[in-house]
């Protein structure tokens, strides 16, 4: 488990909530790799962004999703158990290493929460993401 300072909950980039708690389950909005509101990387994986760069960006996006989830935890909650994560990757038509990129998000959650951070996962290739982000992560987690 990480001993680093936790990431602050991201500020919405539009008209939505970063996270919502309902009946003990937290749902996050899609989170891009932002720090202090600014994208750390822009571009398309397989073109202007390498798989390795996208792997790191996926970790940033996953930590943002986790911060959003933590921001709605009720008082007295022990923490979170990640249930499902979707990682969207803006890639070229010939880029197929989606799981390798998504592994960056999985690694970030595991580093923060140990085995409780390992969810089921989907890695989905898309044409474009908000603001030119190469990756976007959304998370569903249970309050424990």
The percent range for helix content is 25-40%
- What is the name of the CATH class? Alpha Beta
Rg, nearest Å: 14 Å
Number of helices: 2
InterPro entries: Endoribo_LPSP/chorism_mut-like, RutC-like_sf, YjgF/YER057c/UK114
Protein name: Endoribonuclease L-PSP
Organism: Mycolicibacterium goodii
Task: Write the topology of this structure.
Layout: E1 19-22, E2 25-28, E3 34-35, E4 38-39, H1 51-71, E5 80-90, H2 98-113, E6 120-126, E7 135-143
Helix pairs in contact: 1-2
Protein name: Endoribonuclease L-PSP
Pfam families: Ribonuc_L-PSP
Organism: Mycolicibacterium goodii
Defining key terms:
alpha+beta, disordered N terminus, 60s Ribosomal Protein L30, Chain: A, two-stranded antiparallel sheet, Endoribonuclease L-PSP, 2 helices, Endoribo_LPSP/chorism_mut-like, RutC-like_sf, 26% helix, single chain, five-stranded mixed sheet, YjgF/YER057c/UK114, 144 residues
Structure, explained:
This protein has 144 residues and is α+β, with helices and mostly antiparallel strands. The protein has a single domain, classed as 60s Ribosomal Protein L30, Chain: A. It is built from two helices and seven strands. The chain has helices at 51-71, 98-113; strands at 19-22, 25-28, 34-35, 38-39, 80-90, 120-126, 135-143. The strands form two sheets. It has a five-stranded mixed beta sheet, with helices on one face. Strands 3-4 form a two-stranded antiparallel ribbon. Helix 1 crosses helix 2. The longest helix is centred in the middle third of the chain and has 21 residues, at 51-71. It holds the Pfam family Ribonuc_L-PSP.
